[in-house]
């Protein structure tokens, strides 16, 4: 059996004439292969027969593809992702509504895995993973995520679901923040000079809790929510994402889920009231730099006013620590 050289495959896809007429919806795509399946959505790779490239396509699963709530969430994710054109977000190519499969959107196909899979192997002390992802590299990954969030915040978007599963680590160094399905886009903005932060008035946080606790999602993912989200505050700002990033940092360094309880209620109580020891003193790892302790604890402060006001401040602090490792 012989295989074509990759360059031959690329060249062969550039020669044919355009289909006439150009197929509508998902009919223009072929060679579908499943990449990942969640509680409500399916991600597949496929070939765009018009452009001649491999892309990723996301669709809702058949049991929810006509559900109004899921369609709204899906469209929000597609449109927000499409509008956030940053190196650490994934480019969206097309949004459509297929007669058979319903809503879909296509985006750049990036080979790799989510950050949670990396952390699981680090926790097992896998030698190859530890070589590829030492503490400094993991800090750089989260710093890149913060860059995407800083960009989004300046454009009035708060992610609200930052967690390792939503951080994609590519095979060629790419770091992509995914899943903007529960993001909030600024509707009405107040400027509070006391904190210097633009405030987002939230319509309702029930959408987010439903998305985070639905069947098929890793148990305990609500632990990345901020105290103000848990309490259902009507106003949140970018410091909510700062808190979630802080939880990711703590877990990344200690390989422990810091606020996870036996139930969601216990987890929420921990988020609102439990004070954590500095990561370097958690005792689970011996490679945690003490210089990062204050950064993490400030990011996960219970009161928003005690956290970093803007994501750029957290980026600068992380980059300074990484530079000295």
UniProtKB/TrEMBL annotation:
InterPro entries: Kinase-like_dom_sf, Prot_kinase_dom. The keyword ATP-binding applies. Signal peptide: none annotated. SUPFAM superfamilies: Protein kinase-like (PK-like). CDD domains: STKc_PknB_like. Pfam families: Pkinase (PF00069). It comes from the Bacteria. Residues 1-23 are annotated as: Disordered. GO terms for molecular function: ATP binding; protein serine/threonine kinase activity. Its EC number is 2.7.11.1. Keywords: ATP-binding, Kinase, Nucleotide-binding, Transferase. Residues 1-15 have a biased composition (Polar residues). Residues 29-325 form the Protein kinase domain. PROSITE patterns: PROTEIN_KINASE_DOM (PS50011). This is Serine/threonine-protein kinase PknD. The lineage of its organism: Bacteria, Pseudomonadati, Planctomycetota, Planctomycetia, Pirellulales. The gene is pknD_2.
